[in-house]
Amino acid sequence: MLDKFSSQVNALASGVYEQIAKIKLNRVHTPVGSVAIAIAIAIGVVLTIRETGGFQPLELVTYDWMMRNRRYNPGLDNRLLLVKITETDIQTQQKWPLSDRIVARVLEEISKFEPAVIGLDLYRDVPQSPGHQDLRLQLQSLDNVIGITKLSDAQEPGVPPPPHLPPEAVGFNDIVNDPDGIARRNLLFAQNQEGITFYSFALRVVLKYLSDRNIAIDNSPTHPQGIILGKAHITQLEPHSGGYQTIDAEGYQILLNYRSPGSISREVTLNQVLNREVDPSWIKDKIVLIGTTASSEKDLFFTPYGIKTETETFKMPGVRLHAQMVSQLVSSALDGKAILWFWPNWIEILWIASWGVIGGFVAWQIQHPLKLGLGVILGVGGIVAMGFGLFHWGGWIPIAAPGVAFTLALSGVVASKLLYTAFHDDLTGLPNRTSFMKQLERVYGRSQPKRLPFFLTLGKLPQAGQSPKYSLVSLNSKLPPVPRLLAVLFLDLDRFKVINDGLGHDIGDLLLIAIAERIRTLMRQPRTDGIEVVTLARVGGDEFAILLDNLYRSEDAINIGESLYYQIARPFTLKGQAIYTTASIGMALGHADESRNLLRDAHTAMYRAKALSKARPQVFESAMQNNAVARFQLETDLRRAINAGATPVNGKIESEFLVYYQPLVDLKSGKIIGFEALVRWQHPERGLVFPGEFIPVAEETGSIVPLGELVLVIACWQICKWQQEFPSDPPLMVSVNLSGKQFAQPNLIEVIKRTLDQTHLDPACLKLEITESVVMDEVELAIEMLSQMKALNLKLGIDDFGTGYSSLSYLHRFPTDTLKVDRSFVMRMVEGDQNSAIVKTIIALAHNLKMDVIAEGVETAEQLAQLRSLGCECGQGYFFAKPLPAEQIEALLKSDPTW
After folding, report:
1. CA nearest 119: which of 150, 138, 154, 147?
2. Which keywords annotate this record (predicted)?
3. What is the pLDDT of residue 740?
4. Which residue, 854, 850, 865, is CA-closest to 798?
5. 374 or 417, which is more confident?
6. Which residues lie below 8 Å from residue 723, measured CB to CB, with a gap of 6+?
7. Residue 885, CB half-sphere, CA atoms under 13 Å: how many?
8. 290 - beta bridge partners?
9. CA of 747: how far to CAs of 716, 751, 754, 770, 884, in Å?
10. How far apart are CA 311 and CA 772, in angstroms?
11. 687: exposed, middle or buried (C-beta count within 10 Å: 0-12, 13-18, 19+)?
12. Is the separation of the CB atoms in 123 and 293 below 8 Å?
């Protein structure tokens, strides 16, 4: 039952880890709080700018653009006729203002054809002789004429209405301009300080026209500020309507919905009316507006269209603007054409804020720059498209403000993400090394050392009436402050590279996420000892660091480290597969009043833990730092010496690396037949450095590859020189060891060819030795590489045979010439028949495979005698000679020894 429950828990945990990984492998998730703050700031900034009117110019520009580009072409309004007074008409009459007689004649000619209403957009507040009496009679006899007046304001006085018209037949012709000088609004009513309401000229004309159809203006039963006119439901324009924010909203205003950029109705000139060149059907039951279109009269207004008039100015005559207003109201009242509407202020705020949220969400979810750019285009385009679409159906909503909110929120979230990723790890979401170091610096200077928070009782309190012999003493008053103890734990996963390479990087990433979550869960557990987990960070590929504060004992940190070790050692189930790993943990302790790089020290201690392979965390000691510094200096010097290379000078090789040679002796003749090349390092300051000190460093850092090439060149050059000085048959040969990294380098064959060509050494005189473990790592690849090397006609040998992997099943496939018996077997030959039998078996195996044998570690005559009796071809060891520099080898060769 428990096993079943455990498997279910593991499966559930695996699913959770995979879901976390799917999120975090696809995007860097900035915390929701940071995203929300960035979005809120962006929205707040935009709404503040909007409140002060900062977006109004942009919104008005978009209004004009939509007005110009909308597909709205209803054609001419046949209910209107415009009698325009042109420059030609003024020149013909030779007088301006026109005389009352001319105006009376125009009214007489028009009234003959029974118009519904005549709108006289000409000031007639003072008599214009001749014909004043004629005009008075016309105005008194006609009940469908609407005259104009101009309201007074603080800047200029008004213009009185014609004296012969009743108040209900007069309307003001004041046109409201926006701050940029463009007319976008239609002022229907105005009220003076005495509370008297005035109607606009356009509204008076429309009301007169609609009165014959029994349509009158009425209050809206559902909206206190709204009015109803036939089929039209008119809502008052307010300061927050549409894109407006700081407009003068006095009176009752609506948005002016232009019918077209130019003429919206049939137009005739004043002379055409006076010359009776007008079709009566153009006038009967129609609205006739009379006004000037001559640019010389300055009665011109900027519009969203900027249409040119006869004199090439980008303005619209006032009478045409009144015609626009009249046509708008009539079309709404009779045809149900919607008045331009707008949202309440709270909906506009919600609209703007929503786009800010959308912009922030887009930036939060999308990582790829091109996709993010496409998101910006789609977002801004969507705002414009929605605004333009609603405008086509009669609605004006803000476009600039939500566009800026979208872009600003998006930019803010992108900036917060960049800031977040600068201090956090992409994969796990943990703080990174930079953030960890800043936290460490912050903790160092955060507070002063603490005092112990308790009292110590030194005796009993005195009884009543007794003198005090004892007292209660505060320990804080006697002891100095105790510095706060900090601890940094540095974790490095063991065998992570094997897991990452063997199971794939996806599993490796899932494992890192799972480990981070497991450590985070452990660190979040409530503590009763006052220890504060300041931060957990991922500071490297498979490295994590934890900063602890408020410790008073180093044992507490060690206990936490041990808990971490056992938590990580528990198996992880990822994609249905159990993964096992452990961690090497280093720890550094320091006081809050110090200034140390605890992360560096913990990292150094981690290397010590990895070397010891213990489950217990290793605490940093100063000796570790000294060793680390010495190791770093050794690496630096090693690279410098390798880069310096080797140079032949006067028959010698000048290099910091010295090649020592140990003789290889033919056991039948007892003569030297060659040498094994062994490297030493003549350090300019430390003196002679043996391979055990620098070869492991070279292996770990990868310097072994150029070092091995350097040794190969020196050895080949030296043996070629000795072949000339000490000729023999066969000629002297040299054996050079290849490390595993050298054997794995892709250009090894080219390196060997180049070396042989440069030194002019016969390939048959060069033997390359590879350890058994190297060739067994990747058998098929090793066989292929050995075959390529064998094709160069050089010799191949397997070093330390019998000490590594069991290669018996593959040995017959290796194109090698020599097996080298390890010194451990040779040295124990005299200890018993069993050890001797091992050597005998190896020799027999080699001979059966057509290979010869070299026994290394020969140190006694007895060992030599046994090897000869077993048929071993060659030997090397201190019995013959230890590894010697080239000068001593030359002296040895001159003595021509025989063993």
Report:
1. 147
2. Membrane, Transmembrane, Transmembrane helix
3. 85
4. 854
5. 374
6. 731, 732, 765
7. 10
8. 83, 120
9. 19, 6, 11, 17, 31
10. 102
11. exposed
12. no
Instruction: Identify whether the C-beta of residue 280 lies closer than 8 Å to the C-beta of residue 113.
Output: yes
DSSP character for 208?
A: H
Structure token digits, residue 12: 């559930």
Looking at residues 395-410, what average pLDDT do you find?
A: 94
Which amino acid is located at 362 in the chain? V
Instruction: Measure the CA–CA gap between 169 and 164, rounded to whole angstroms.
Output: 10
List phi, psi (to 5°) of 72: -135, 100
Residue 298 phi/psi, 5-degree rounding, is: 65, 15
Alpha-carbon distance of 682 to 644, in angstroms, equals 13
Measured CA to CA in angstroms, residue 311 lies from 92, 175, 518, 642 at distances of 18, 22, 81, 89
One-letter amino acid of 207: L
Distinct helix (H) and strand (E) counts, the chain: 29, 34
CA distance 533 to 550: 9
Rg (CA), the chain: 51
Least confident of 111-125, 351-365, 370-384, 795-809: 795-809
Provide the token pair at 298. 């300055």
Q: What are the two backbone dihedrals, phi and then psi, of residue 395, each rounded to the nearest 5 degrees? A: -115, 140
| H-state helical runs in 142-278 | 201-211, 270-274
Q: How far apart are CA 285 and CA 817, in angstroms?
A: 121
Question: Which residue has tokens 């017959």?
Answer: 812
Q: How many CB atoms lie within 10 A of CB 570?
A: 9
CA angle 177, 178, 181 (to 5 degrees): 70
Task: Kindly indicate the confidence band of residue 891, based on its pLDDT and cuts at 50, 70 and 90.
Answer: very high
Adjacent-strand bridge partners of 688? 682
What is the C-alpha separation between 614 and 316, in angstroms, rounded? 92
Do residues 616 and 582 make contact, with C-beta atoms less than 8 angstroms apart?
A: no
Tokens of 106: 């125009």
298: left (phi > 0), else alpha (psi -120 to 50), else beta? left
Kindly write down the DSSP assignment for every residue of 420-472, as one continuous string.
HHHHB-TTT--B-HHHHHHHHHHHHTT-PPBPP--EEE-SPPPPTTSPP---E
Cα 320 from Cα 162, distance rounded (Å): 21
Give the chain's largest Cα–Cα span: 157
DSSP code for 140? H
Query: 261: closest CA among 339, 314, 211, 222?
Result: 314
**Which of 358-367, 414-423, 591-600, 863-872 is predicted least confidently?**
591-600
Confidence of residue 96 (pLDDT cuts 50, 70, 90): confident
Of 642, 756, 655, nearest to 708 by C-alpha is 642
500: pLDDT strictly greater than 90: no
Check residues 843 and 74 and name the one with the higher pLDDT.
Answer: 843
Q: For residue 130, is the peptide bond before it cis, meaning its omega torsion is within 30 degrees of 0?
A: yes
H, E, C per residue of 348-361:
HHHHHHHHHHHHHH
Q: Dihedral of the CA atoms 222, 227, 232, 237 (nearest 10)?
A: -100
Asked whether the predicted pLDDT for residue 693 surpasses 60, the reply is: yes
Q: Phi-psi bin for 294: left (phi > 0), alpha (psi -120 to 50), beta?
A: beta
874: closest CA among 859, 853, 898? 853
Give the span between the Cα atoms of 47 and 28, in whole angstroms.
29
Q: Is the pLDDT of residue 473 over 60?
A: no
**Full-model pTM:** 0.62
CB 84 within 8 A of CB 443: no
> Nearest-CA neighbor of 399 among 415, 421, 382, 414?
382
With contact defined as beta carbons under 8 Å apart, do 697 and 632 qualify? Answer: no
Note the residue count of the chain.
Answer: 899
For the beta carbon of residue 768, count every other beta carbon within 10 angstroms: 24
Residues ≥6 apart with Cβ < 8 Å to 800: 771, 772, 820, 822
Q: Environment class of residue 773 by beta-carbon count within 10 Å: exposed (0-12), middle (13-18) or buried (19+)?
A: middle
